[in-house]
Amino acid sequence: MTKVSVVVPVYNEEGNVAELHREIKEVCEANQYEYEIIFINDGSSDKTEEICRTLRPLKYIRLRRNFGQTAAMDAGIKAAQYDYIVTMDGDRQNDPADIPMMIQYLEENDLDVVSGWRKHRKDKPLKKFTSRGANFLRYLLVHDGIHDSGCSLKVYRKECFEHVTLYGEQHRFIPAILKIKGFRIGEVVVNHRPRTAGVTKYNWKRTIKGFVDMISVWFWNKYSTRPLHLLGGMGFAFILTGGGCGIWSVIIYVLGYKMSDNIIPPLLTIFFIIIGILLFIFGLMSEILVKTYYGTGVDNSYSVKEITDYKED
């Protein structure tokens, strides 16, 4: 029997949670899954909590405050117990009816992750434009082979998250993070529905945070195990530049010019050499920190207030 954990972060979605729960339940029961539905309340200030507590079956997780979608998703993933973990948004724009098709595609192609591709999006033009721009930058920096990494509707094998902790806005880059670790990634076109209740939570601040996290994923992909290759290489380049400026200073002195008349070359020599040495030192320190990171656990960036498992009556 297929065992599925459906993880849904929710934030001020009082108009969506009940209907979304019903849709997920119907899909899981129609396909005879052994399932659990996990809603993570990310500090909602409306009636989301009140409505969630009436839903059955439901594993309900309440965070102490609004920590963001990535933190809520990480909390839900860590609470999931079944073989397949399905993540989706709480605004009902993702269609639970796509879940069986995605699981089938994952199994038939021996994949670890299947990501949804909202090929025909039902969003406002500005949101589409911003998303396409972010996808283009992600393609240049990350190369995860996914058209629409921002789509929350994804299916994962549970083992994908055995040593992964999400933070920032990294829920958008989970396929890239897992691909770095060697997991097999696939993508299928999914249905995307217009929002019928509530308001979007995306804004320019989240776009900037997402871009910063994209740089973090790029760095982690390239230099996670050997940051000295980047910082040490930059340090070496600065030291070479400083050496060039030093030669320039010597030539000026040999030609009979007074240093007081042309102080820029010696100053540049000192500046570039000092910066180069500092970059080498930072690179060595980063190497030590990376070894510490891989050798110890990582603290969570959020705090769970309660986890309640509501069974069917």
Structure description:
The protein is 46% helix and 15% strand. It is an alpha/beta fold. It has an eight-stranded mixed sheet with strand order 7-5-6-4-1-2-3-8, sandwiched between helices. Helix 5 (125-141) packs parallel to helix 7.
Mean pLDDT, rounded to whole units? 84
> What radius of gyration results from the CA coordinates?
25 Å
Structural class: alpha/beta
Can you count the helices? 9
Main beta-sheet strand count, sense and barrel state: 8 strands, mixed
Write the layout of secondary structure elements.
Elements: E1 3-10, H1 17-30, E2 34-41, H2 48-52, E3 58-63, H3 69-79, E4 84-87, H4 99-108, E5 113-117, H5 125-141, E6 154-157, H6 174-180, E7 185-189, H7 204-223, H8 228-254, H9 264-295, E8 304-310
Parallel strand pairs: 1-2, 1-4, 2-3, 5-7
Antiparallel strand pairs: 3-8, 4-6, 5-6
Helix pairs in contact: 5-7, 8-9
Give the gist of this structure.
With 313 residues, this protein is α/β, with parallel strands linked by helices. Helix content is 46%, strand content 15%.
Key features?
313 residues; alpha/beta; 8-stranded mixed sheet; 9 helices; elongated
